[in-house]
Amino acid sequence: MPDVTLIIDGRTVTVPAGTNIVDAARTTEVAIPVFCYHPKLKPVGMCRMCLVEVWTPLIDQATRQPVLNPDGTPKLGLMMGKLQPGCVTPVAAGMVVKTVTDKVQFAQRGQLEFLLSSHPLDCPVCDKGGECPLQNLTMQFGPSTSRYDYQDKVHFEKPIPLGDTIYLDRERCILCSRCVRFQDDIAGDPVLGFDSRGRSWEIISKSDPPFDSKFSGNTTDICPVGALTSSDFRFKARVWEVRPVPVVCTHCPVGCNITLDMRHDRLMRVMPRENDFVNEIWNCDKGRFGMRHVDDATRLTTPLVRRGEQLVPASWDEALRVAAQGLMRVRSSAGATALAGMIGADASNEDFALFRHVMHGVLGTPHLDHRPGGPADVALETASARFGVSSGTNLLGLGTGTLVLLVGADPEEEAPLYVLRLRGIVARGGQLVTVNAHPTKLDGSAARVVRVAPGREAALIQAVVCGILDGGAPMSSRARGIDRLRTSLKGASAVQLAAAAGVEFEVVRALTDQLISAPNMIIMIGRTGLAQGSAVSDAVGALAAVTGAFGRPGSGVIALNPGGNARGAQDLGIVPGEGGLAAAQYWDAIARGELKAMLVAGLDPATLGAASASALDALDFLVVQDAFLSDTARRADVVLPCAMLPERDGTFTNAERRVQRSRQARQAPDGQRAHWQILQGIAAALGSDPGYSVSSDVTDAIAAQVPAYAGARYTSLGVTAGDWGRQANESVYYDGTSYTNTEGTGVQLPTGVERDGLPPVAAPLTPLTGGVPTGTLAVLVPRAYDGRDWARGSKLAPRMVPPHVIVGPADAGTLGIGVGEPVTLTSARGSVTLPAQIDRGLAAGTVLIVDVAGFAAADLCGGVITSVDVARGEA
Amino acid sequence: MLGAIFNGLRTTLGYLFRKPVTVEYPEVKRPVRERFRGRHQLKRFANGMERCIGCSLCAAACPSDAILVVPAANDPAQPNSPGERYAATYEINMLRCIFCGYCEDACPTNAIVLEHQYEISFYDRTSSIFTKELLLVAADRGHGEIPPVLAQLDRRPSPPAQIDL
Amino acid sequence: MAPSQAIFSRSRAGQESEQQFMPPLTEHIVLRDLDIPDIGDPEVYHRHGGYAALRTVLTEKTPAEVVALVRDAGLRGRGGAGFPTGVKWGFLPKDSYPRYLLCNCDESEPGTFNNHQIIDRNPHQLIEGVAIAAYAIECHTAYIYVRGEFAAGARTLERAVADAYRRGYLGQNIMGSGYDLDIVVHRGAGAYICGEETALMESLEGKIGQPRLKPPFPAIAGLYGKPTIINNVETLTNVPMIIRHGAAWYRQYGTAKSPGTKVFSICGHVRRPGNYEVPFGTPLRELVEADYYGGGMRGGRAVKIIVPGGASSAWLTADKLDTPMDYESLAAAGTMLGSGGVIILDETVSAVELAYKMDEFFKHESCGKCTPCREGTTFLVRVLHRMNHGGGRASDIPLLHDVYNQMAGNCFCLLGESAVVPIRSALRLFPGEFEQAIERAAASAATLRANAIPLVTH
After folding, report:
1. In CATH, what number is assigned to the domain containing residue B80?
2. CA–CA distance, A120 with A50 (Å, rounded to integer)
3. d(Cα A403, Cα A433) in Å, to the nearest integer?
4. Are C183 and C332 members of one domain?
5. A192 and A286 share one domain
6. What are the chain A neighbours of B72 within 8 Å (beta carbons)?
7. Are residues A312 and A272 part of one domain?
8. What span, in angstroms and rounded, lies between the C-alpha atoms of A147 and C402?
9. d(CA A751, CA A674)
10. Three-state DSSP class for C361?
């Protein structure tokens, strides 16, 4: 769009045509007060706070020429003869905007007097007090006294719960509709609405359960008054009393920047921290309300050492010595390969470095893994390393011309914030295509939904790759191995592969056309795709290779490996080494007597099923590092209490390979230690102390040793790069919304091609041309609200998903299954009875089993997709 | 010579017959001025409800950071104070307090008042922290009705004021 | 009624003066055929020349010719703004289909009741007008949005539409011309704001009835985001007669700038309240005093306040009785023709109370979307309420001035601007009554004292 030059308060501004006056003023540090306008939402012009004088050149009706003053300047006229709302008035050339005239100030005072005429005077008890735009704008622009009689104010019942986590105080509401618009436009959960009219107009929730959205907490941030407050922070503290500490959320691979608001070492609330590269100004409810476990009373406080049947408290020195001696004893008697280690994917890069140092460097075992060892374990993929999104990619900047392909992914459950990011791309003109065996929330925003048979995502992508290779479409020559790829697919045709995927060939052809015509393509693989061996990720890599969607900003593969830092774990070698076993193979190896001792950090494999539980029982020696006395920890010989997110600092790598620093918010309440400190203690007891004193020592060591991480030191992670978000004067727009990021936006690691200039190699594929599987297939699907440790003490507890099975309407009809009725699933591994839910979008022959706490998935499922028999009723 | 002695003791003897300016503290306590700022009290309303609504404005106003307020939500069945919020913890560190009275000025409900008691001494530092139990006046020593501005903060639904049509 | 009839004016009790009035219309345009029994029956309507204009249009004229004819006739929108209808029809973007025609029958302006009579008594002339207009703008779906309270009228209209379908005036291939048209009668849920064109569209789309941001204007993106023409019932009812008799015939009525006739709903303290169709330019005095119109004031009392165009038009006083009733003259008198609801009130009415009642209406009907309207109307009503009930304060007059000035020009749509009108008129025309109201009021400081938090005294 062409640029337009106008004058705002005497300053000349040039902005793209179509910009509204408020946004134009922001660029020149003129703050026009607003309530309903928000930089992230579409303007609606409801609150009338942004009224300004807009003078436009007068046009002579007869000659269509501007009328000139005697001195030759264009004569100006007040637009429409009255004040104009700045948020919905687009700029025009020659416009003169005045924001501080008597008329404007009279109107501003008037709007504030009006707003306060039905706003209660309960600032002293309001949780928004101190970061409230209404307070701030009243101080700056409002009248000093109200002429409205106090007893004439409207009164409603004080807060009514809008959902489990959000309270609504209707007296305080100024009806700006920010929350409703956020839910409709940004989150895509249109669960809020308005009822009644006039002064009785009020916000209501339209869903069951009420306010059924994973992003509800954001509405409390953007609420310009204290109408929406969270039950989590209700009356906990005043906002000026809290100490905001920047950390990185480790609940999922997005790596949202959040702020822990601490008061005297107690966590008061979690707020998002602005980072346009990661989470903009939002975070999800799991991140916001799922941090209460750090203050849970059942946390481990001291190391425990087994004495006979009992785990008894021990000193750190003793526990570390016992742990080191135990591991060493097994190593001496059975060799290094009898040892295995696993560390949870939400540990920091520093933890991984020390874990590798202890287990591989000192003890010499190849059996390392970051996966939990269950049926939903993802295969190690290299597509996102080879064809990953290039540095400089910012999903916020993508729109028209971008196609996002989701393969076997359900971002709402795996990485909720990606829902907002991807919907943003769609809102800016991009396209979304989902490839899934079952309905997901993002289907609603997708331009095309491709429904494949369970486990046949790879076949579909292969069909597309095959079609592109056969069709002789213009192809990127940058990737290597294309010829080998072509040869590997020789035996199959796109038609065969489409049939194998259970998709009409016409759909594949249309999809292929759509993919090759998109200038930018982001391919996102989710857990369901990643857990089907490497077939899906290899196919996706090949697709990126043949479409050229790699090696440039705005294109590439994003893999949603479960866990907050799975990317870091893979980069830092927490993967099976040469001859090493994957975590899922540990349990059989233990049963065979090949593995005799384990170190488990931040994982609870005992809950996966009977096999892993009995295997852990059979170990000679087990060291567990965990925050809680988990089922695995109960079986341990040494339990070492670890520090949790607020008590440690470190770096984390997200799904887009952005390394970010998380800081320490408090001392661990009972001297618990971070994983890396515990591991360093074990290393010292083994006589190989690396001698790091602070976390940044480890970070520096990683930067020195791992080529990809060379740029990821604390100094560079702390840089808040130039034009990335809000301007200095923008508190008017963001007050109470989130914290400004002054602590660094992180560093995106370069892909291989960017680092060494060598184009990535497309792996040859094995065509999946078998027929569409018959019989019923069960897909083990992830759930964000899975009820695991993070849910302790959370206000989200009522929303935790209970174990259940989801059947389609056809299967439910055939088998006579009603909602909530028990269904028995039988597989080669065993039999489980679960209550049923019905999803109308689910095809016959597919059932979904939710992977949540309380369901031992490994007792039924051999992998993410399992062939099962479904029967009504109890077994 | 005797004359010289009397001359020397004249002032002393003169004071023998005057009213003394000192008082025999602690047996006798000198009254303080009306606006004297001594030990704090947390007041109540006549119906026994605490005036403090736990807003922490006193803590924000305190120049020596002597006040700690930890608020909590009132149980609607058994409210401690009018409205939704009350102070679950209210502590003043008397070693830090400089008796400036800013907390009084900041208080929106006139809950905290610097009273006339000035004998504040303690044997150890921990007992310098006056808790809410120490500061709060007895339940029967409240005064004043709850004003509408506070009464309306209550959780009870109050229907919109009706206008006859 | 004989032409050039002189009648006695009863404007002032005891002061009888002779006045020359224009004769009433011998041929009505909008309120035609109302005396024919069963004119709502399509057979009867057809017998009296009904649907002839539609047939003419469908068989002989192109859409552009119809638009040109209506433009030449100078038909102006009767909904309130008076925008030339033919010009409005020409605003539609070329080659953008589908288009929609909306007929606004959400007649909720206090004092206005002419649309109601049309749909209740002679619905087919509206249906014919809608059909012609739909043909002219090349749309195939038209909606008639009927105010929720007009249950009986809406039922009549629905029956008439069904009859028209049965007789082939609507539906596929109307009268063999190949033109298809569907008319949907939609009933609102009872909200004044739904008479605002964009709020009407929101309501029709099933959303909460609230105005939309303009631009884009309905002609560009209206109902369901498509180009939409929205016309008032009375406007569309004029169309068949323009087609039947031509533009020149139409222009013989009224003034040069406001051709045609207008149905005024005369109510208030006149002897004969009702709907009267008069040519534009008829003096207000005639409407009030002529025997064949209002018939003078009841009880011979003096005229005090005239609200010439529904509650959202500025008030006039008796000295403006000679204003001709057309768009330009009323605008010159500082008010507007509006919807044609003429409310005539006598000297027994208190201006303060009238302003209160009218603003109470606007407060009740405010949709709540924008701050100045939602809060400002409430504010005005609270202040006027206490003034009317003996609680007025000296500061209230400047307060009222401030409050309406804080609203004026700052609202999202015209509802808020309309709410300013009664109070501004009252304060301008009758400041003395407000002062008297305050003098009567016993100043009460008790309410102020009740709010103070008592200081603790020792």
Report:
1. 3.30.70.3270
2. 23
3. 7
4. no
5. yes
6. 235
7. no
8. 10
9. 30
10. helix
Whether residue C381 lies within 8 A of chain B, CB to CB, comes out as yes
Examine residue C312 and state whether it is found in any structural domain, yes or no.
yes
How many angstroms separate the CA atoms of C426 and A149, rounded?
Answer: 23
What value of ipTM does the predicted structure carry?
0.89
What is the pLDDT at residue A317? 95
Cβ-defined contact of B85 to A156 (cutoff 8 Å)? no
Range of the domain at A642: 304-376+567-712
Whether residue B105 lies inside any domain: the answer is yes
Shortest Cα distance, chain C CAs vs residue A152, angstroms: 7
Residue A94: CATH number of its domain: 3.10.20.740
| Chain C residues in contact with A152 (beta carbon < 8 A) | 382
Size of chain A in residues: 875
Amino acid A868 reads V
- Which of A117, A151, A194 is the closest to C375 by Cβ? A117
For the entire predicted model, the pTM comes to: 0.92
Cα separation of A515 and A464, whole Å? 9
A675 in any annotated domain: yes
Residue pair C54/C239 in contact (Cβ under 8 Å)? The answer is no
Q: Does A184 touch chain C (CB under 8 A)?
A: no
Domain contains C31: no
Distance between CA A258 and CA C146 in Å, rounded? 52
- Contact at 8 Å (CB) between A354 and A698? yes
Name chain A contacts of C402, Cβ cutoff 8 Å.
110, 147
User: Is there a contact between B148 and A150 if contact means CB atoms under 8 Å apart?
Assistant: yes
* Residue C330: closest CA among C351, C354, C350, C310: C310
The DSSP output letter for B60 is H
Q: Are C453 and B150 in contact (CB under 8 A)?
A: yes
- Domain boundary among the residues A712, A734, A762 is at A712
3-state secondary structure A97-108: EECCCHHHHHHH
* C365, C380, C456, C457: best to mutate for the B interface, most B CBs within 10 A: C456
Q: What is the pLDDT of residue A478?
A: 75
**Are A688 and A361 contacting, i.e. CB atoms less than 8 angstroms apart?**
yes
* pLDDT computed for residue A208 by the predictor: 85
- CA C257, CA C237: separation in Å to the nearest integer? 20
Q: How many domains does chain B contain in total?
A: 1
Q: Is the pLDDT of residue B162 over 80?
A: no
| Distance between CA atoms of residues A692 and A700, nearest Å | 10
Q: Which residue type occupies B2?
A: L
Could you tell me if residue C13 is inside a domain?
no
What is the mean pLDDT of each successive set of 10 residues along chain A, which is 875 residues long? Answer: 88 92 88 91 93 92 84 87 94 93 95 92 90 91 88 82 91 93 94 89 89 94 94 93 93 94 93 89 94 95 94 96 96 94 95 95 95 92 86 88 95 96 95 95 94 93 91 66 87 89 93 92 94 91 89 90 93 93 95 95 94 95 96 96 95 94 94 95 94 94 92 86 54 71 84 80 85 86 94 94 95 93 94 94 93 93 92 84
Mutate to test the interface with B, among C359, C453, C455 (most CBs of B within 10 A): C453
Dihedral of the CA atoms A120, A124, A127, A128 (nearest 10)? 70
Chains sharing 3 or more CB pairs under 8 A with chain C: A, B
pLDDT at C48 over 80: yes
| Domains of chain C: total | 3
The structural domain count of chain A equals 5
Q: What element of type H or E holds A696?
A: helix A695-705
The residue type found at A289 is: F
Give the three-state DSSP class for C185.
strand
C219 φ/ψ angles, rounded to the nearest 5 degrees: -65, -25
Looking at the structure, do residues C284 and C224 belong to the same domain, yes or no? Answer: no
DSSP A549-579: -SSSTT-EEEE--SSTTHHHHHHTT-S--TT
3-state secondary structure of A587: helix
Cα–Cα distance for residue pair C67/C75, rounded to 1 Å? 11
